[in-house]
Amino acid sequence: MANSLRPRGRPKAFHDKTDQNTVQALDRGLALLEQVAARPGLSLSELAAQSGEAVATVFRALVTLQKHDMVEAEDGGQVWHIGPGAFRVGNAFLRRTKVVERARQPMDALMRDTGETANLGIEAADEVLFLSQVETHEAIRAFFPPGTKAPMHVSGIGKALLAWYSDMRVERILRAKGLERSTPATHVTPEALRADLAQIRARGFAIDDQERATGMRCIAAPIFNSHGEPVAGLSVSGPAFRIALEDAGRIGALVRAAADRVTEATGGAQP
Which residues cross the membrane (predicted)? Predict the structure, then answer.
């Protein structure tokens, strides 16, 4: 009886905006998505019984997932199946996994040829996300474990991607993230950064000259998809006393060649 008096659509914790409350709702939605994937063709009542949730709760979750094309209803809404949105999300993971897998050998060779740590990264939410690393055997070395993030404008990989992004996309990222100073060498004005990006495009690789961390340099090049769009980047990074600016041309050529091999191996094309 008490439940019937509660305002519909407003749970007891309606005013509770904690992360825990939000995550629990997301957890239920993802669990339901896994149910549909594991046993396609179940009805609403079957899904509710299997999940232990109320029919109304499951229906709202299904409609939300359907809105994003993650599930779809067949036979007049009687049974539910995985939708094209879930395929797109899964396919994005497969593409990323393919890049990680195909980049491994070029990264190994890059580490041996340069003596420095090789890195693979992508852009995620307007930042660089490092996916993989092959560490040098040197005692002093760069270390970016998978999952590490960095601002685009202070990262070799970030600048390599920005250099081949459209002006509109670069502008959007700069508006969203700004140009926070990390070291005295950081580009903190759009004009300075854009001048650097023009040089990167001209020579084919990016240089992070102690812009993220004093005493560390990074040289990076982009990896392209089948449309000639930059989707990832390869780099080598290490202490400035081992990666001298005089060697940037030689190392940059090695990094660009390795990135081009990954582009070719994943079915990409040069822009």
Answer: none
